[in-house]
Amino acid sequence: MIDQATDAFEAPQPTNLLKTSVFNIAENIANQLNYQLDGDVKSVIEHIGGKVLVKDFWAERGKEDGSLIVRSQNDFLVYIPSDTSPLRDTFTMAHELGHYVLHYLWPLQVQKRVPFKLKATRYGSDRAEWEANWFASAFLMPEAEFKKTAIRVKSIGQLASEFGVSSQAASIRAKALDINVGD
């Protein structure tokens, strides 16, 4: 179990990879972990040693805002808010998985960094957050399948439903891939 009080945690540092590189990494990770479209992201996280917990961020406001706590490889916690929808939770879990892959595993494995502890907060808006969002969108909505499905469906809502994400997430992914969908 993670003892947050006695350990020093670092904030995620951006990889500064191109958006397309992050998309490719996310799709490769999804394939390696056998993630299926509209699948169970929580099971994926648990399969690689993480735990997903529900947290009342409003009750703890000002005390603890960590949404991802990584103590070591295969020892991490993902917190999802108690007041959000399952579709939002899916994206949040994929986003936190993105932080784990890009801002923890990448520095360890690719940059040969010495092990460290990582904590991503709920209210960030810097480049590392963008990267985690890019990762989540490509993990949940891989480009080839997304484009193929976008041709078949008539609305963003239908597209979102096919991938188990919110309409907002599907709309942002469509825009990133320069895809026009019926509505």
UniProtKB/TrEMBL annotation:
InterPro entries: IrrE_HExxH, Rad_response_metalloprotease. Residues 77-174 form the IrrE N-terminal-like domain. Pfam families: Peptidase_M78. This is IrrE N-terminal-like domain-containing protein. It comes from Hyphomonas adhaerens MHS-3. The lineage of its organism: Bacteria, Pseudomonadati, Pseudomonadota, Alphaproteobacteria, Hyphomonadales.
